[in-house]
Write a structure and sequence with these properties.
Number of helices: 21
Distance between the termini: 37 Å
Mean pLDDT: 82
Structural class: mainly alpha
Strand content: under 5%
Shape: globular
Low-confidence stretches: 132-142
Helix content: over 70%
Oligomer: single chain
Order of helices and strands: EHHHHHEHHHHHHHHHHHHHHHH
Length: 465
């Protein structure tokens, strides 16, 4: 059961907080950016939002929470380091100091990013969704096979895609892999990316704990190996999404499990730091002198380095604010509308310009842009009404996230077939575009619908699994 709850005191408290922050950020827009104060505001918001979710008895291990955390890390990582750790010397490119030099635009960008996530969060507070007492799902005999089938449908695309990237990285470094990534046909890249969304589906269809543990080990090893190419964002989203599903199956975490997951998290951050060195020097050079990379990583503050390496997405909304109504003139909701057309593969190239308009990051006019951004997307499409769009989308995603948590507890796998891929791809929207998200989720929906039809009986005759 879902309902709109505007009388919730948490909703009004965060409305007041957001208005106060907006007014303060606007009042200091003519002054040099006070990174220290802005960083404390960001830190307060993140901790306050997590605390609010816990007080409202919302699932803390959820896709909604993951989206919020990813947003803060990707959009504010480098900002917080500048504000709270100004003397810390790091190894990565700082986009804030290197490219975001216009103080006026920087002020507007920080205000945009802060208000955007606040309103998204408020949207999550407004919409209440609780399970009905009776069982509402419809489980069919063949439903549990669909996740595995989709897994194997998309895996060849993913395997070939990763193979190309790794070989390119070995021959010419990360930049070579990045350039190859941009010329691979969009249809092929989208099908390869959809494989990530099928991994949690495959996991929940496994019956025994032994099978699940073996699957986790194999998948984690593959995902880590694929990061050798230098690409890591989608892999990280996939790993986090998978662990959300794993933890959702457990009624209560034991202390040993918490310690184990903590150790895995720390080791993961060290791996990401070493991976960043690999991206800078290239695979061949890294293999010749890998010991120095391990030594450098051991001597760094791994938490700060992780924030720095991921926290560069803020540059994308900066470019949007800089070029809005000057370098580009999008109409209201342009990318959202044109993303519907982008669902159809443009094999002939006739609709190339139309489809490109669904991906706002391609219209920013610079090679230094580092992918999409949820905040940038909201401003590009809705201008000064970005806050309203963020609120409405937050309402949508809290519904999907809570429904996943509820159906997981019920064991209703049929309902999860599209909800989980939607949530996985949605988290990546933190630094992606609505055009990419729409294309992938529509294709996934079509494939799942096809497999849920009577033709699934034919597929089940082939004992692929």
């Amino acid at each position: 059961m879902k309902s709109i709850n505007l009388l919730n005191p948490y909703v009004w408290a965060w409305f007041v907080i957001t208005i106060v922050e907006y007014l303060w950020l606007d009042s200091v827009s003519k002054q040099p950016v006070d990174f220290n104060t802005v960083s404390w505001i960001i830190t307060f918001n993140l901790l306050g939002q997590l605390f609010t979710l816990s007080q409202k008895k919302e699932p803390m291990v959820s896709f909604f929470t993951a989206f919020i955390v990813f947003y803060y890390v990707f959009h504010f990582g480098q900002v917080v380091l500048l504000g709270l750790f100004p003397k810390y010397e790091y190894d990565y490119m700082n986009y804030v100091t290197s490219y975001m030099t216009n103080e006026t635009i920087l002020h507007e960008t920080l205000k945009l990013c802060i208000i955007c996530i606040n309103m998204f969060f408020i949207g999550g507070l407004i919409l209440r969704y609780k399970a009905n007492d009776e069982y509402s799902g419809k489980v069919i005999l063949n439903a549990k096979n669909i996740g595995k089938i989709t897994f194997f449908i998309f895996f060849p695309f993913r395997l070939l895609f990763d193979g190309i990237l790794i070989v390119s990285s070995a021959m010419g470094g990360y930049m070579a892999a990045q350039s190859i990534n941009t010329v691979i046909p969009g249809v092929f890249a989208a099908l390869a990316a959809l494989w990530y969304a099928t991994i949690p589906l495959y996991y929940i269809e496994l019956k025994s704990n032994k099978e699940k543990k073996r699957f986790l080990i194999i998948i984690l090893l593959y995902l880590l190996l694929s990061m050798i190419s230098g690409m890591r964002g989608l892999q990280m989203v996939c790993i986090v999404s998978l662990f959300i599903i794993v933890l959702s199956e457990q009624k209560k975490l034991k202390k040993k499990q918490i310690i184990l997951y903590g150790i895995i998290g720390v080791l993961g951050m060290y791996f990401i730091d070493i991976l960043y060195d690999l991206r800078n020097v290239g695979l061949n050079a890294f293999l010749k002198d890998y010991s120095s990379a391990f030594e450098d990583s051991r001597n760094t503050n791994i938490v700060l380095e992780t924030l720095g390496t991921f926290g560069e997405t803020v540059y994308t909304p900066y470019l949007v604010v800089e070029g809005y109504n000057s370098s580009f003139h999008p109409f209201f909701g342009e990318c959202f509308i044109k993303s519907i057309g982008a669902v159809i593969p443009d094999v002939t190239g006739v609709f190339k310009d139309f489809n490109n308009d669904a991906y706002f990051a391609r219209r920013l006019g610079t090679e230094n842009a580092i992918g999409g951004s949820f905040a940038g997307e909201m401003y590009y499409n809705f201008g000064s009404l970005y806050w309203l769009a963020s609120l409405l989308i937050g309402m949508l995603f809290i519904y999907v996230s809570n429904k996943i948590s509820i159906e997981m507890k019920k064991g209703n796998y049929y309902q999860l077939l599209l909800l989980i891929p939607f949530a996985v791809l949605f988290i990546w929207w933190v630094r992606d575009t609505v055009g990419d998200f729409t294309r992938k989720i529509v294709w996934m929906a079509i494939i799942i619908y096809y497999l849920k039809s009577k033709k699934l009986v034919i597929l089940n005759r082939f004992r692929l699994i």
